[in-house]
Amino acid sequence: MGKKRVLYWLILALFIIGVAQSIRINPSGILIPLIVFSTIYYFYKHPEKMNWILNRNLSHYSRQMKGAKKRRISRFTVIKGNKDDKKP
Asked: What is the predicted pLDDT for the residue at 10?
């Protein structure tokens, strides 16, 4: 069990060193995905806030649609064609 624990801590330490090095070299390479995933996680854990944003946008759309004119129902008529209805 001792060898597995040492291996675990060694891999974890190397991972942390690698992440720190990559942040030092190219901060936007890590920070942009971190911000995106953090935002997704936040709205996943707090869906009521996301519903508020969506409802606000939809209510604006519904107000816009209320003023739109409704379609007039048109009547279609069938015109007798020249083709025979027989199947060959």
From this structure: 95
Residues 7-27 as b or e (16 or more Cβ within 10 Å = b): eeeeeeeeeeeeeeeeeeeee
Q: 30 pLDDT exceeds 70?
A: yes
**Contacting residues for 69 by C-beta, under 8 A, at least 6 apart:** none
Phi, psi of 32 (to 5 degrees): -65, -50
Please say whether the beta carbons of 27 and 19 come within 8 A.
Answer: no
Question: Structure pTM?
Answer: 0.39
Show the DSSP H helices in 1-88 as ranges: 2-25, 27-45, 47-66
